[in-house]
């Protein structure tokens, strides 16, 4: 949750769009602490305060205007993701006759081409981190480059947060890099759980520990029912 919250650090007054329990807690934690200007939505038509009180009106057409202007930072999930950040949530196997049907492309292309898009993947494994996704839903750096300048204008993948580590694309060719390890995890464990070679710096920092106040906010204010444990067990 701390790693997810850090995704929105210094983002300013933009719409945070977390998809999933842990990213949602992270976004609210960021707004409670170091990113108070973040905008949060109820997922329907309202901007809401931390306590759920309506703060403004955000119908879908205005939401889309924020998306296409790059004024949103979304954190999505991924059934597959590759070394350049191409994401798949549609199908596994040949798309003409897939072995698994998933959510479908949904809004992934619009998200990734028009505003910063990060990812939350609780179970880091070679089945998810693949050499090449079976279908491109979320656009990665190589796909955006191939599509031309208009595709690169707002395209950015700040980070990928998993149950093991934080990854980014801060390399010369925008391939995936190990940016931070969660406490107790080694770089070798992350590489073993990844289906392609990661860029691993000589000194990889650890994800910072939550402060006592952040723990209090998570446990008593943001998620008193412990919904986080359904997504990531202790």
UniProtKB/TrEMBL annotation:
Keywords for the protein's UniProt record, in alphabetical order: Transferase
Gene3D superfamilies assigned: Glutaconate Coenzyme A-transferase
GO MF assignments: CoA-transferase activity
Keyword Transferase: yes
PANTHER family in the cross-refs: ACETATE COA-TRANSFERASE YDIF, CHOLESTEROL RING-CLEAVING HYDROLASE IPDB SUBUNIT
Family: Belongs to the 3-oxoacid CoA-transferase subunit B family.
Name of this chain's protein: CoA-transferase
Species per Swiss-Prot/TrEMBL record: Streptomyces agglomeratus
């Amino acid at each position: 949750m701390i790693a997810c919250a850090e995704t929105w650090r210094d983002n300013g007054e933009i719409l945070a769009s977390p998809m999933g329990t842990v990213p949602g807690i992270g976004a609210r934690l960021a707004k409670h602490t170091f990113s108070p200007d973040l905008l949060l939505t109820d997922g329907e038509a309202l901007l809401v305060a931390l306590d759920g009180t309506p703060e403004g009106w955000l119908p879908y057409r205005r939401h889309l205007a924020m998306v296409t202007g790059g004024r949103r930072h979304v954190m999505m999930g991924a059934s597959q993701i590759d070394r350049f950040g191409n994401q798949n949530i549609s199908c596994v196997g040949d798309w003409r006759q897939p072995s698994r049907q998933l959510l479908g492309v949904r809004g992934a292309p619009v998200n990734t081409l028009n505003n910063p898009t990060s990812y939350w993947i609780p179970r880091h494994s070679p089945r998810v981190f693949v050499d090449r996704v079976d279908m491109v839903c979320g656009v990665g750096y190589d796909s955006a480059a191939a599509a031309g300048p208009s595709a690169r204008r707002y395209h950015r993948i700040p980070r990928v947060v998993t149950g093991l580590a934080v990854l980014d694309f801060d390399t010369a060719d925008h391939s995936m890099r190990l940016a931070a390890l969660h406490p107790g995890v080694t770089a070798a464990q992350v590489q073993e759980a990844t289906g392609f070679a990661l860029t691993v710096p000589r000194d990889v920092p650890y994800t910072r520990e939550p402060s006592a106040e952040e723990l209090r906010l998570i446990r008593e204010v943001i998620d008193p029912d412990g919904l986080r444990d359904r997504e990531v067990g202790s």
